[in-house]
């Protein structure tokens, strides 16, 4: 993962925090106000006007996006816009209620709005 921005390290050596992050990962490209990467669990948490794109999905203006490198699961939170870049079925799990989260696992043929 290549991240640029202002780096600060937390109390544990397994967490890296980057402000105003621009990231080129193995599976995605992203920009965010802040990135926290948990090296032990291989989880990237992006917050603050997040732009996140993979070969399958593009997410804009999310409050938070979490990517788990082990499970390849992406969750987007907040008031965001999105578009599928390949044919993927979008399953609305809560009907007409407000949607504030999307789940998608890289390689799956469905994404879930919750």
UniProtKB/TrEMBL annotation:
Pfam families in alphabetical order: LptD_N
Residue stretches making up the Organic solvent tolerance-like N-terminal domain: 15-71
Matches recorded under InterPro entries: OstA-like_N (IPR005653)
Source domain of life: Bacteria
Protein name per the record: Organic solvent tolerance-like N-terminal domain-containing protein
Organism name: Flavobacterium cyanobacteriorum
Lineage, highest ranks first: Bacteria, Pseudomonadati, Bacteroidota, Flavobacteriia, Flavobacteriales
């Amino acid at each position: 993962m290549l991240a640029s921005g202002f780096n600060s390290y937390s109390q544990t050596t397994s967490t890296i925090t980057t402000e105003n992050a621009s990231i080129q990962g193995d599976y995605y490209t992203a920009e965010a106000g802040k990135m926290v990467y948990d090296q032990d669990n291989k989880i990237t948490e992006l917050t603050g006007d997040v732009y996140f794109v993979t070969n399958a999905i593009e997410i804009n203006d999310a409050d938070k996006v979490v990517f788990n490198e082990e499970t390849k699961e992406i969750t987007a939170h907040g008031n965001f816009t999105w578009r599928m870049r390949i044919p993927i079925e979008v399953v609305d799990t809560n009907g007409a209620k407000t949607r504030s989260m999307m789940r998608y696992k890289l390689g799956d043929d469905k994404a879930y709005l919750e």
